[in-house]
Design a protein that fits this description.
This protein is mostly helical and 684 residues long. The protein contains 27 helices and no strands.
């Protein structure tokens, strides 16, 4: 198909989409975008890009397809329900922060749904997404092979790749999401040989990073994602499977080398010296295998013009590759079970970690983890379901799962998220929020599958199938992890899902006899252009102006919590320097910018207490308690003030309330209980 020339407005559209996707790169190297300050900067840019397109008058389409409008409505309703949860939330500030996070995803969805005007743009943007994932993978592997030169933080000292996203399962998900997008190019016959070789090496890189995250769900998810990709890519299944098999082959070689010669690379707590020396050796092996992956692609390209594979032979080859993959997985599982004492011992161990009430320790080697059911999620899911049964309609408020966890957790482990978008939504947003969320996912899945079936076998269907598989990977993984809180992987999903809905709509319009919008832009008559200009203001007023106003309001909603958080950071820095007066001023300013947050009040109270103004500090903490009555730390701080005043009865009551909300907390309450005992306050 001949690609039409790109006019200025189309250049602006494509530039806006690329700039929006680059926010994912920023998030990837900013702790995944998890923290409010770093997330807010990217969110402001997304909202600005959306607003910029509206201000530039970038036409979208005379009518917006029903499926897209329905998805926008559902995602918008979910965002508003999160905002409404502030009214009954256990922690109003966190609920509002979750509202701003949902605004980010809504804006990302709208950006790609509105401005993706030509289908082949999605393939172009796919190259950028693969480049972003490759940059993340390279940076992560450099920390693995050169730990003495590039030091990446490993907070849990588990020897699992997690940087720069700072969470290994999110790293695994990003690699899986990028894999089908890259696989489509590597298996594309029209693609130039250098491009295919580069993408073949990239596929191996993604699989290598996935393995070194030791993510069980990630590896299973890769197999399911590949199956989804193959199911949709009619006419290209054998090529896709062959190239995925080649990348897997070199990854198996890498795994074998590690187990035979580089054991420190797969141990949970390796010797520091061995980690450095074997890391350097791993770097050499990686370079050789990357070259081998590229060389294999060149050999495949050479054979393509000389070997014809019949349909029957193709099916046999595909089945053989699938069986070989299953055998490899089963063989690895059998080896892991044998290392753990045989099937009987392994089954007994798995039963203990699933049903046991005690926390189980992390396993030592990669294969022990990959073939183990050890996880804390079973208890976390149970806590989520318990919270749902208590408040089934509206939930406890967005971002408040931690309150229920502190109260009901079976062991003393600090966890902030429920490790499941579904279960956490049930706990925090109740039945209403859960129905809206599932409706959004359901409409997207149903519409995408219908569009996939509508597309005929060919390049357009291959592109759609690859990106749909990427979205399916996120949806499946988000059901068992806290991917919603990681914009580095969640934002690409919402962008791609919006793009796919637009892609399907354009395809249907084109099949109905209409040309793509970009193709008719240059051929419009002067009369048609004048008529369009005459009705431009009317169209603008119909929906673009309200959307522009909504963007401005959303930017303000993001800005005030951001400025407040910056002031909180300033107050914390002043506290470390011992500047109580400056801490007090900064905290007071932070609270004025975001009155829902109790954290500034606590900082101001601490400054007042250090300056001897106990009553002022007490009043500030009582005010903070009105905002967050389920915050156990506020009760402990009040208890400390009452002990200083000599009001032991009130101090004992505050400690008791703190323990009701957080029974297993001992680091601070034991100190307070000791002080009460020493002063004759008795036991709590």
């Amino acid at each position: 198909m001949q690609i039409p020339s790109i006019g200025r407005k189309d250049q602006a559209r494509l530039g806006i989409l690329a700039a929006g996707l680059l926010v994912v790169l920023y998030y990837s190297f900013s702790a995944g975008g998890f923290f409010l300050v770093r997330r807010s900067y990217g969110e402001l840019l997304i909202l600005f890009l959306l607003l910029l397109g509206l201000l530039l008058g970038l036409e979208v389409k005379g009518k917006l397809p029903l499926a897209g409008r329905l998805e926008m409505g559902l995602l918008g309703a979910f965002t508003l329900w999160i905002l409404l949860s502030v009214l009954w939330s256990y922690i109003p500030a966190r609920s509002f922060e979750e509202f701003t996070r949902a605004l980010l995803y809504l804006a990302g969805f709208a950006l790609f749904w509105l401005y993706l005007r030509r289908r082949h743009w999605l393939a172009w943007l796919g190259h950028l997404f693969v480049l972003i994932a490759a940059a993340v993978a390279i940076d992560s592997m450099l920390g693995k092979v050169m730990p003495d030169v590039i030091s990446h933080p490993d907070l849990f000292e588990s020897n699992r790749l997690n940087y720069p996203l700072t969470y290994w399962n999110a790293m695994a998900l990003m690699m899986v999401m990028a894999f089908p997008v890259a696989l489509r190019v590597a298996a594309s016959r029209p693609a130039p040989l250098p491009v295919r070789c580069l993408y073949a090496a990239t596929l191996f890189l993604f699989l290598s990073v996935l393995f070194f995250t030791f993510s069980r769900a990630g590896i299973v998810l890769l197999a399911v994602t590949l199956a989804v990709h193959l199911a949709g890519a009619v006419g290209s299944r054998l090529r896709l499977l062959l190239h995925a098999g080649l990348a897997s082959l070199w990854t198996i070689v890498l795994v074998a080398v590690c187990y035979l010669s580089l054991p420190a690379m797969v141990e949970s707590v390796p010797d520091p010296g061995a980690r450095v020396s074997e890391g350097h050796q791993l770097g050499v092996v990686m370079v050789l295998l990357l070259l081998a992956a590229a060389g294999t692609q060149a050999a495949a390209w050479w054979l393509e013009g000389r070997v014809n594979i019949s349909a029957v032979l193709g099916r046999r080859i595909g089945a053989s590759l699938a069986v070989a993959g299953i055998i490899a997985v089963l063989a690895g599982g059998a080896l892991a079970v044998a290392r753990q004492g045989g099937p009987g011992s392994w089954l007994e161990t798995q039963a203990e970690v699933i049903t046991g009430a005690e926390r189980t320790e992390a396993v030592g080697r990669a294969e022990e983890r990959l073939f183990s059911f050890q996880s804390e999620r079973y208890r976390e899911y149970a806590v989520s379901l318990g919270a749902f049964t208590e408040r089934p309609l509206q939930g406890t408020g967005a971002g408040t799962w931690i309150v229920t966890w502190f109260r009901d957790r079976p062991y003393d482990v600090y966890v902030t998220d429920g490790h499941s978008l579904l279960f956490e939504t049930m706990a925090e947003l109740g039945l209403v929020g859960t129905i809206i969320l599932l409706s959004f996912a359901g409409v997207f899945a149903v519409r995408s599958i219908r569009d996939l079936r509508f597309l005929k076998a060919g390049r357009e269907r291959c592109v759609f199938a690859a990106f749909f598989a990427s979205c399916a990977a996120f949806l499946m993984h988000a059901m068992i992890d806290w991917d919603w809180e990681m914009p580095a992987v969640a934002l690409p999903f919402f962008m791609i899902s919006g793009a796919l809905l637009r892609y399907g709509a354009i395809s249907r319009d084109r099949a109905g006899g209409e040309r793509e919008e970009g193709e008719r832009e240059g051929g419009e008559s002067r009369e048609a252009a004048e008529a369009a200009e005459a009705t431009g203001i009317q169209r603008w007023m119909s929906w673009r102006l309200p959307v522009a106003v909504a963007c401005i309001i959303a930017m303000l909603s993001v800005t005030f919590p951001l400025l407040s958080q910056l002031k909180i950071q300033e107050a914390s820095q002043l506290a470390r320097k011992g500047d109580a007066a400056g801490q007090e001023r900064a905290a007071r300013k932070a609270h004025s910018l975001f009155p829902l947050d109790a954290a500034p009040l606590k900082l101001e109270a601490a400054a007042s207490s250090s300056r001897g103004r106990i009553k002022t500090a007490e009043a500030l903490l009582q005010k903070a308690l009105e905002l967050e009555p389920y915050n156990d730390s506020i009760y402990r701080e009040l208890a400390q003030l009452y002990i200083r005043e000599g009001n032991l009865e009130m101090a004992r009551e505050m400690v008791r309330k703190s323990l009701e909300l957080n029974p297993l907390e001992s680091r601070h309450t034991q100190v307070l209980e000791g002080q009460l005992w020493e002063r004759g306050g008795g036991q709590v």
